[in-house]
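Sat 14:20. Reprocessing the chain from the morning session after the first attempt stalled halfway. Input below, unchanged.
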Amino acid sequence: MKEFLVIAQIIVSVLAIVFILLQQRGTALGSAFGGSGGGGAYSSRRGLQQKLFVATIVVVVLFVVFAILNLVL
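Finished this time. Tokens:
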């Protein structure tokens, strides 16, 4: 059981890294200080970007659950 949790946590951590890196980056720090970054500071996520965002949250929560289970068991 312990080996399964370790392997699952490694897989989930790699997925979390990939999902975080795939997310679209913002307009950088310049817009926070008054730069004209093309549009407003806030934009809504739509379509695949929304699904990727939700999947990232789910994967990170799974990572935390596996980490806690590794400590307890």
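The longest helix spans residues 48-72.
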